[in-house]
User: What shape does this take?
Amino acid sequence: MKIEIKKLVKDFGSNRVIDGVSLEIQSGELFFLLGPSGCGKTTVLRTLAGFYEPDGGEILFNSKSMLGVPPHKRNTALVFQNYAIWPHMTVFENVAYGLRVRGVSAAEISERVENALERVKMSSFASRKPSSLSGGQQQRVALARAMVVNPHALLFDEPLSNLDARLRLEMRDEIKRLQAETKITSLYVTHDQEEALSLAHRIGVMNKGVLEQVGTPFEIYNKPASAFVASFIGEINLLPASCLLAQQLSCAIGGDDSTVGFRPERVQLGGDGILGRVIFSSYLGSKNEVTLESRDGTRIKAWLQDYVKEGDEVRFHVESEYLLQFQNKRELR
Assistant: This one.
């Protein structure tokens, strides 16, 4: 199912939470909405689900308007961060619940629930109660319950935020596998950049109710449209184009009224580069994280393959193809 959002607006009192957001989610796509807390991403998801009525704009499912359509008639399924599974029901009963309220026959319920549990590798837990399951297992049950009703769209609201680091990685792989198998159109809301970069077909980055950029993970990371996007996705060095270091890097091409950026991993040592002093060094095995200070006192982060220790003087440079420039009207808010 294709989802279209056109100039969506949502207000809560005098506070405009969504300000003219427009985007298209293609059929079968795993689309991520990414942004800091309070940026409006969850409000977009809940408006799509029908929990909120928009104050402006349109929502279309396969070109059909959803304005005024109640949640239970949109054929969407949600996966929440707190699992939202019934503690008094078994795993089987939790997954079957949505089918029962839809009046599906007992024989079909049994077959579909068994298939859904097998898909999430929870068949052997069908008779268990949620209290006996780990957080990752409960989230698998929530996934099975969402998929068993054959929704046109899956909506994920920070589903992994309550899991520990190891389980988050495990469930990331599981969600990616399941979405690839089912090809259900999916919108996934998160503030976790690594989650978005590792799972998404495309990402939309939101800031203060506005969609700043939409693109593939590669485009968002390597070709950010604004200093906000550049700084929110991964780490980046941002310098005023007027500073000496920016001029030494030969990147102040847009005049002084702009900001220059480059990723820490793009810093290279050697050659006739800029002289700097290592004021912090942390060796992590796969890389050496350092802070370099140039002669004008500007400090930057660098992730190096070569080990350097604090107090060393080195020469460094950044290839011009990796230098980014942002006009100050689009700078970090």
In short: Residues 47 and 53 are 6 Å apart (CA to CA). The chain has two domains: 3-231, 237-330. The chain is about 25% helix and 35% strand. The longest helix spans residues 165-182.
